[in-house]
Write a structure and sequence with these properties.
With 165 residues, this protein is α+β, with helices and mostly antiparallel strands. The protein contains five helices and eight strands, in the order E-E-E-H-E-E-E-E-H-E-H-H-H. A hairpin with a 2-residue loop joins strand 5 and strand 6. The longest helix has 14 residues.
């Protein structure tokens, strides 16, 4: 897959989930934080990152840096996805279905954040299995990574774009 330069894109970040974890030590509990962040330009580029640190802003900053390093290009056809797809990660499964213009984004939580950051405006989604934000976000990205544009499919098959659609 081709490397995408994060500096060339106008990326916006969205905090999906912030988790406080406690480590029990001799003097009591020591707290640290996990942050899941989605970055995207709203034009077909999206990435996710997980940051861990002892302070919230540092965890978010680390997550944003990781998300910028893991950008993927998503094919968007007329404001929606080209076809139905199901993504899995661990026990999380996310089903995405194209929708007609005016439908909007029918999704919740982490799925909505990934879809909005990618720049998809009309889509129907269903989250199946676990509701763990880590797995749901990664399953959504897995589904989006499976998508291929009609142009790339036509090139692989050696046909015209009209024959593929």
């Amino acid at each position: 897959m081709e490397r995408i330069d994060a500096n060339a894109l106008d990326l916006k970040d969205k905090l999906v989930y912030l988790n406080r974890v406690a480590k029990v030590v001799k003097g009591g509990k020591r707290f640290s934080f996990n942050a899941i962040v989605v970055v995207g330009d709203g034009k077909g580029h999206v990435g996710i990152g997980l940051g861990k640190a002892n302070e919230v802003p540092e965890a978010i900053r680390k997550a944003i840096e990781q998300a910028k390093k893991s950008l993927y290009e998503i094919p968007i056809a007329e404001g929606t996805i080209p076809y139905e797809v199901t993504g899995t990660y661990g026990a999380g499964r996310v089903f995405l279905r194209p929708a007609s213009p005016g439908t909007g984004i029918i999704a919740g939580g982490g799925v909505r954040a990934v879809i909005e950051s990618a720049g998809i405006h009309n889509v129907l989604t269903k989250s199946l299995g676990t509701s763990n934000p880590h797995n749901v976000v990664k399953a959504t990205l897995d589904a989006l990574k499976q998508l291929r544009s009609p142009e790339s499919v036509a090139a692989i098959r050696g046909k015209q774009v009209q024959e593929v659609r």
